[in-house]
Amino acid sequence: MSESLRDLGLRIKARDIALAETTRITPAAFALRHAGRYEPGLLQLIAGHLDYLRDIEKKIPSWYENRQTLPYTGINLEQSSSELTARYKAGYVGGQNGLDLTGGLGVDSYFLAQKFDYFTHNEPDAGLSEVAACNFKALGTDNVTFTRFTAEQYAWPEKRYDWVYLDPSRRNRANGKLVLPEDCLPDLPALRAQILEHTDAVMVKYSPMLDIRLAVSRLETVNEIWVLAEKNEVKELVFILRKTARPRPEIRCVNLATPQPEFVFTLEEEKEAIAPYGMPLQYLYEPNAAVMKAGAFTCSAVRFGLQKIAPNSHLYTHTTALDHYPGRVMRIRGVTPFDKKRLNNMVSGKQANIICRNFPLKPEEVKKKLGWKDGGDTYLYLTEDMNGKKLAIVTEKISP
Q: Residue 308's domain spans which residues?
């Protein structure tokens, strides 16, 4: 149901009341404190705004500092881009005209619009479009036009767009199964040719659950793939499409909010790479989540001259601590078979951060078996060597 202007006015009133009280109070506590002061509908809106403020404080800090933006009923902010990923994407685009074909609440649109003379936020839900327009006005963005078409029925103007952006939603979330581009709304493989009649460049964001290789085959004219992580958690996959495919599209692995460098490779490079195997040496290397999601298991080892400890553990070793590695670098303090007595002699305080790679026990099971607690400066990697022998590698972190 579309949001009426009256409802929008109530949301603004709810926002102002929430801000006048405090952003630290919980919605439940606020509701108890003011149960007789506000009508239930308005009280619910205020509680919703308090939730929204908590969500955007770290995720979209510039919106939080502004304090004038509004949430929208039914929109899960968790699925929206963060400010970090939105700014990264905006750093790649620019020109006279840009379009967000699936505008939503407008987080991506807001940052993308700053790189264009004119920008269009397209969102078929009239209420959501109204909220986005209200937010953009509050944020001081005045170069954006708001349209309300479905992506399939978008009224393409005669002008050309320098970039078109999409963030398709998944139709089927059942069982947490992986989805293909054609399983999402809009179906970009079906619309790709039409969209590329009006632009030379399409940027599309997908869930990190998507299989990269299958997506490349479905999207056909992929030129680049970005795996965007924040603090070692993969947040989204981004594909750049143009009129013709790039024979060897680059995959860019990015771990935002860390000093780790980007790692760029191709699927062909990974397929052709051969890395030597070796026992743990002085230093242990663990690729970050973006590199792991992208599948750069062997070529990343070759690029940095590392040895693989085992075929499927995705842990690597070297005699020195290398700079500019896209992941953790750990100093090895000891290596032993998995044995409680030996580990207790090697690790004081019975405390460690436990990481299991290709190991029959989970970290919680290991802690219970050893009688240890989690945390501290020691990192215990449980894995196997190239011969399948189970290993415990005691380390300390020297880079994030």
A: 272-399
